[in-house]
Amino acid sequence: MTARKLMYVLLGLLGLMFVGTGAGMYYMHGLVRESITATNRIRIDAEVNDKAQESLAAVQNSFNDPEVQKLSEYMKQVIPPAEYKSQFVADVYKYAEDSGVSLSGVTFDESTTGASPAPAGAQAIPMSIAFGSDLTYNGFTEFVKKLENNLQHVEVKSLNMQPDATDPGRLSSASLKVELYTEK
Q1: What is the tens place of the pLDDT at every residue in 116-134?
Q2: CA distance 4 to 128
Q3: What does the alpha-carbon distance between residue 93 and residue 103 come to, in Å, rounded to a whole number?
Q4: If you ran DSSP here, which 8-state letter would residue 134 be given?
Q5: Residue 61: C-alpha distances to residues 12, 26, 66 (Å)
Q6: Number of other CB atoms surrounding residue 169 within 10 Å
Q7: Coil vs helix vs strand at 146
């Protein structure tokens, strides 16, 4: 082998070394970039987790606050137990009697499908109140006022009334849909 051929072989090997080194560095650069990206994701997740833990600790500490405990006790007094339904029906009939209206029925929808979202620890029970004949407009409105003003755990969702064609002070039909909030 002559010196010239040896020089070409060595230059070729040197070129291959440069290309191999460049390719290796490019590959290593990609690995380092992936590693940095994964590290950044882990760091961000850790920061989010730390903030969530701090927030949870703050919420847990707020339950120890006497004002929050008072509010919690008040909520327990406001929302009646689930067994209250029979007492509620008795209250509804009493308000109807006091208002001078007759009821033809009070119906509970136990499925609670379509009920409004209730506060934590409570449930909304949809129900319908149907009125009897010989219903006056004033009696109906007085009944609704008594229901809303005296029972804070009841929400009127809709009311339907049809005026009597012959007497404007009377209703030919009326119905009321309400939601009763009780403990779960």
Answers
A1: 676 666 788 888 898 887 8
A2: 106
A3: 7
A4: S
A5: 73, 52, 11
A6: 10
A7: helix
Residue 100, CA distances (Å) to 18, 22, 45 in order: 102, 96, 65
Closest CA to 175 of 160, 164, 163: 160
| Helices marked H in the chain | 3-62, 66-78, 85-99, 137-150
Tokens, residue 6 = 């040896």
Per-position b or e across 40-65, b if 16+ CB within 10 A of its CB? eeeeeeeeeeeeeeeeeeeeeeeeee
Distances (CA, A) of 80 to 62, 71, 120, 125: 25, 15, 13, 12
Contacts of 91 (CB under 8 A, 6+ apart): 150, 151
Confidence (pTM): 0.55
**If you average pLDDT over residues 16-32, what whole number do you get?**
93
Identify which of 119, 118, 124 has the alpha carbon closest to the alpha carbon of residue 177: 124
10 Å CB burial of residue 141 (0-12, 13-18, 19+) is: middle
